[in-house]
Amino acid sequence: MGEQAGDHSADAAPTGELAFIRWLRRRTGRHLQMLLGPGDDAAVVRTTPGRPCLLAADMILEGVHFDLSAATPAQVGRKALAINLSDLAAMAARPVAALVSVALPRGRAAALATETLDGMQALAEEFHMSIVGGDTNSWDGPLVIDVSVLGEAGPNGPLLRSTAKPGDWILVTGTLGGSRAGKHLDFTPRVREALLLHEGYHLHAMIDISDGLSTDLHHILEESRCGAELRADAIPISDAAKNADDGRSPLEHALHDGEDFELLFTTPAEQAREILADPPLRIPVSKIGKITSETGAWMVDNSGARHELLPHGWQHAFDG
Amino acid sequence: MGEQAGDHSADAAPTGELAFIRWLRRRTGRHLQMLLGPGDDAAVVRTTPGRPCLLAADMILEGVHFDLSAATPAQVGRKALAINLSDLAAMAARPVAALVSVALPRGRAAALATETLDGMQALAEEFHMSIVGGDTNSWDGPLVIDVSVLGEAGPNGPLLRSTAKPGDWILVTGTLGGSRAGKHLDFTPRVREALLLHEGYHLHAMIDISDGLSTDLHHILEESRCGAELRADAIPISDAAKNADDGRSPLEHALHDGEDFELLFTTPAEQAREILADPPLRIPVSKIGKITSETGAWMVDNSGARHELLPHGWQHAFDG
Predict the structure, then answer these.
(1) Percent of chain B with pLDDT strictly greater than 90
(2) Do B133 and A88 touch (CB under 8 A)?
(3) Contact in structure between B316 and A18 (CB atoms under 8 Å)
(4) Helices A73-90 and A191-200, axial angle in degrees (round to 10)
């Protein structure tokens, strides 16, 4: 315990953690904010004075969150970092550094270490951040990857879930549903989009859609103590959701599937109109409804009927 | 994925992650530097402007690093945080915040979550830091706990492994060896001692002894590109090492056992003399040898004979 590891690659894999760390250190990306990378007891990072630090972590487990017969180790590694970057995006924060802790199945350890870190490192480079350390272990269990990230807020500070206001319009980036058909392995976390929106417009509340629109909307509503009314015909449905052939409607997929990793945000009507009239992003932004003072979430269908929208997305039940 | 959890306690355990997070949030310690705790996509922390951030992570695995028949969940939780605080101490950094990710064995999940976090929370309070978030999962595997910490450097910056100089005296806090007899479960990370030493004296290099004196000394020597000569009769040997009855000598225990979590540091002779003449800490500090320009580590025994000191402590081999 105590060694900080980071970085990756496709050379012959070294054996033994000290050898692995030496090899990692030669390959770690050097970014301005990383003062000291892997190899000491802790990494040293410079953040911008006066900017709050954002911290998040996500652990993924072989057999629970991923299956190495359905995804390559590089895809799994990339996703382990990407879901964390999506959490930073949800707060409109810029990623600075990541720590990566892994439990590696003995026998496959060296190959899995290098390949998963390969996938992560490519994404880290894309977002100009560094993998500054972590911890490597081997055991007789399945692959476990826990990534924690440090981000920093932009000049307007972090954007919370708890600050939606009645009358806000509810907007969403991209299209929703069917992510498990493939997008969940190669999505681009909406970091750039979140920073651009939060710097250019007065947003009120934001979350990333990881658990499903219905569930993540409820997170905003619960934290902000308000309600919402959505229009069924306004939900942007992905092609994957339209092509799903499992008896559930495309709309149901879009409402509940999860792992879209798009941004769901609220903003006063006049700001929303500006965003929609002159879209600032290269991806679509859609108005899907409004925040109400009456609590609860409601969906108005194409016939004008109003149904309660319950959170049927992913629930992190951990017992039972 | 995406929820930030933290804190703990001994109430009736809630089921379901959303319920768990609500319960955690009511109990999270409020420290000045925590602007936003568990419950949003990321936690928000304020660090001192101009002070570099320190980042470290350590993952511990049931059956590899701990055994729930030999330690309570609270002890395991406490240790998971304590080893990270020891890493910050080794850099002379002050702990600010921790993220805790857990994989909880199904059936024992709620009880293990609350008890391990109980142990952590007590230690976090002691060091005036916050558990600001993390990730909770359940699965059919063993208990996995990954803690990552954010610290900040003091006014003299972080203290590295790589800056020992020939002529430095080598000092160590406390006594060494036999930690597995009990100390490894209740040690106090030397955070306060490291801060006090680094602010009061001109230290050159520091590490915490997690892998064993012989191995951790080699980390300093390798990073600093120098050597060391130790005196066998100067090594402070713990009572646990003296009482061990396994055929290995007390000195061997002190040199190689690991998990002492004491500070090993180097400082110019005149600084070392000041520290030893007027000890600033409530725990003992011992001079155990000197840094040399000749590489390699050597031990002078009681008869004056010189033996090479090889790193026989814990090696993090992760494959084979």
Answers:
(1) 82
(2) no
(3) yes
(4) 10
Substitution target in A23, A33, A40, A67 with the highest count of B β-carbons within 10 Å is A40
Contacts of residue A262, Cβ cutoff 8 Å, sequence gap at least 6: A172, A173, A174, A175, A176, A190, A208, A209
pTM of structure: 0.91
B37 touches chain A (CB under 8 A): no
Distances from the Cα of A74 to the Cαs of A9, A54, A84, A121, B319, in angstroms? 10, 26, 16, 10, 19
Strands (E), chain A: 34-36, 43-45, 53-61, 93-105, 130-139, 144-153, 169-173, 205-208, 227-231, 263-267, 285-292, 296-300, 306-308
Give how far B15 is from chain A: nearest CA, Å.
6
- For B138-155, the pLDDT digits (tens) are 999 999 999 999 999 999
Q: What is the CA radius of gyration of chain B?
A: 21
pLDDT at B10: 35
DSSP annotation of B85 reads H
Question: Which amino acid would we find at residue B3?
Answer: E
ipTM of predicted complex: 0.90
Those of residues 119-178 in A touching chain B at CB distance below 8 A are 132-142, 144, 146, 148-151, 153, 158, 160-162
Tally Cβ neighbours within 10 Å of residue A231: 15
| Chain A contact present for B318, CB below 8 A | yes
Whether residue B16 and residue A316 make contact (CB cut-off 8 A), yes or no, is yes
User: Is the pLDDT confidence value at B2 over 50?
Assistant: no
Confidence of residue A35 (pLDDT cuts 50, 70, 90): confident
Chain A nearest CA to B202, separation (Å) = 19
Separation in Å, CA of A181 to nearest CA in chain B: 18
Q: What is the pLDDT of residue A31?
A: 75
A212 vs chain B: nearest CA distance in angstroms?
Answer: 11
